[in-house]
Amino acid sequence: MGLYFYTSMLIFLSLHIHCSTVNSRSLDHISLAPSLAPEPAPSTEIQLSPRVFDVRSFGSVGDGVTDDTEGFKMAWDSACQSDKPSILLVPKHYSFLIQSTIFTGSCGNGVVFQIEGTIMAPDGPSVWPKGMSKRQWLVFYRVNGMSLQGGGVIDGKGEKWWDLPCKPHKGPNGTTLPGPCDSPVTIRFFMSTNVSVKGIKVKNSPQFNFRFDGCNGVYIDSLNIKAPSLSPNTDGIHIENTNDVTIYNSLISNGDDCVSIGAGSYNVDIKNITCGPSHGISIGSLGMRNSRACVSNITVTDSVIRHSNNGVRIKTWQGGFGSVSKVKFYNIHMDNVRNPIMIDQYYCQTKGGCRNQTAAVHISDISYEKIRGTYDARSPAMHLGCSNSVPCTNLTFYDVELMPSQGQIMATPFCWNAYGALQTLTIPPIFCLLEGNPESVPNMEIDQC
Asked: Are strands 86-90 and 111-115 parallel, antiparallel or unpaired?
């Protein structure tokens, strides 16, 4: 009995000590901060690295003489059909001669068209292949999610196109002769979505440098566009029937508009552009041949325009209809610019002039704020030439200060049928601006937008 008693006591004490230890450990464990979660298991998802399609691997030579068009086409087709993200590479230190070409989408994974070398156009109309359109050179058609980028150069070889006798003042004794006058746009995006153009240098375009038609979602950044100031129709960036566009941080010097915004365009944001010599930044021309034109939600901010024929301009033909509305020009510096602020509803490029018409595109809700600098006093600092039958409405001016670049005499601003408000005194004063709103605006189908 004594042995059994001592044995039982030992077992009881042992169990008591064990339970106390467990309870103590459990309490200690609860009182501590939660331990870190375990590392997640390695992901089984495969990260696809882009596949590079070097145009030299498809037969392109890059000596500046050999026709490399077919190599580019094959590289594009392979990149476009790739089941991985793809890069079409135009390598550095090579110059590739390319004929007029259409790169067609859409590509399953998007394509990065990486230009590090030089792409060259045929040298003028005499060597342009017969049967090929002379209206366009490099075309991207129905591409989605594509990026055109790099530190390389696109050379349009435009000199011989500019000198055609049909071009303004290029005929004998400074005349302009009739005859075929087609010249190629250097780069055209047509019916494309979510495209970006970054870092490219474009020089000597025969006609427009970039043109976007029927596109949605366009991002442009850090372009360098250059052509002589007398090169005809070499608009830097032209958009038509295109929306949701950003144009940032670019240098443009050419013989026409730095940026031109055509009919059917809206939601366009232009910022930090250095423009000139040029014809400025323009909305239009609109309403040609009695056509409908709708443009809205345009902002141009934090930019410089220098040594240009125009600054910020809206230009429409007589006889058109539609509207331009909700446009903001903000914080723009003018450096020796002729016509820094211009609305021209009597725009005409027809030899012999244009007949008077009552229909007009309605211009409204245009604001000019912090427009400063100098202007060429051969023309007034502000020219607000609105339609005789459809007045401009709700033009607002705030902190506008424009001084003549030479001399002390300020040209008097010009207004015609322009209504709005001066939120601050302007220099020079716009005494000709009509206050308030007109008694009525004729219903010239302006509401169809």
From this structure: parallel
Pairwise CA distance, residues 116 & 149, whole Å = 8
- Under DSSP, the state recorded for 280 is -
pLDDT at 179: 75
List active site positions: 256, 279
The pLDDT value recorded for residue 48 is 67
pLDDT at 25: 37
Instruction: Please indicate, yes or no, whether the overall pTM of this predicted structure exceeds 0.90.
Output: no
Closest to 257 (Cα-Cα) out of 268, 243, 242, 273: 273
| Helices marked H in 32-163 | 69-81, 159-162
Shortest CA distance to 234 belongs to which of 212, 253, 251, 256? 256
According to DSSP, the residues that pair with 87 across neighbouring strands are 52, 112
Contact by Cβ (8 Å): 338, 373: no
Q: Which of 334, 261, 352, 253 is nearest to 298 (CA)?
A: 261
DSSP letters along 78-96, please?
HHHH-SS-EEEEE-TT-EE
Mean pLDDT of all residues in 339-357: 94
Q: Which of 85, 16, 10 lies closest to 52 in space, CA to CA?
A: 85
Q: What percent of the chain has pLDDT over 70?
A: 88
DSSP 279: S
